[in-house]
Amino acid sequence: MTRGKRIYVLDTNVLMHDPTSLFRFEEHDVFIPMTVLEELDAAKKGQSEVSRNARQVSRFINELIENDKNRKIEQGLDLRLPQGLQLDRSAKVGRLYFQTRASTDSTNGKKRSLPDNLILAAVVALREEHSTIPVVLVTKDINLRIKASIAGIQAEDYENDRALDDFNLLYAGHNELPADFWDQHADLRSWSERGHTFYEMTLGKNEDWHPHQFLYLPGENEVELRVLWIKNGKAMLQIVDDYSSGSHTVWGIQARNREQNFALNALMDPDVDFVSLLGTAGTGKTLLALAAGLAQVLDQQRYREIIMTRATVSVGEDIGFLPGTEEEKMTPWMGALTDNLEVLTSPQEGGAWGRAATNDLLASRIKIRAMNFMRGRTFLNRYVIVDEAQNLTPKQIKTLITRAGPGTKFVCLGNVEQIDTPYLTETTSGLTYAVDRFKNWEHSAHLTLRRGERSRLADIASEVL
Description:
Rossmann fold, 2 domains, 6-stranded mixed β-sheet, alpha/beta, 465 residues
């Protein structure tokens, strides 16, 4: 094995979490124990995301072997990117090595055959063979990292899939302006057009704004603005619509706070194709998204129908298979949809007949779809709501959003404090990934909602429990 800066030993869960992790260690060498190959082989059967990733890793390794037939496998395979795979990395590449001989293990009996112990034994043998090169075990298994620390082995979490180093750095979508904002921009130009007020100004040094970011100036001269575009050091702002008054509502819903008003502005704007709403329970994410969808589907007829989906990850124990059609199977997962429709479909007149007619109308225009069957589909002129998006991986988010056809709007809702998917964290969630990657796009908007509007009981529970 040629001397490199480091040798990274990859655990099975790293490869099944991100098949491209093989190629993400720059000029360093990568080592795969035989136990990892056996676990990949055992996990390859099935239609789950994990099974697909296991098969993809095997294809990557096979392609590396095919491309390097002239070299013995003991000498290592160059980790050149396969055709069609584009990653942001340096031109230097390391080599891929495999465990070619059994390692000795100090444990006896059944403990010796445990996969974790076999991997640790392989790391110890590799470290003894290459005493001058740092050997690092990379795993997403916390317990294995603890075992490695006890055995004196350097172990790290796989962090290359992080969208951010710190979740607190995530783009919030709105920002408070300084009290002397108007004085700082003496060159500001304003005009009115079609009932809206616009401003054009030169950006200051500290004004790192993004398209469709919302700005507000509290106090006596309170004003709420939205950034329409940023070009050549200049920005165009617009005073937002006020959805907090009874005369200007969206499907009977009015904004109860500033953040909800910003969210409704983004949801009702036809120029915004992607909206992400992030917030804790009770901030109104689903209600606002549904109200805006119904207004644009039934009143404005901007979209043909609403499609709602979510990640089917259980909070507690699974209750088993569900009977019925695709929509019937998804109904138990759509409690949020049912609860919010009760708020939105309470006609003032017509009694039971009016409610029944409204529910029949909405049932024909709101479709519930399972995420498992999204591949190959294209949504044309649809208003798509993705609930519980914090439980999606970046790859799943990409699979969903790339289904969008002309005239389709995607709305992703989620609360990163309620991630139920194994191996996902606040910084690696697909929702965090989408927010960070879309923030500079001129047809996307993001809002982090912080103020709960559910009830005083829910508010105190979120604080003290």
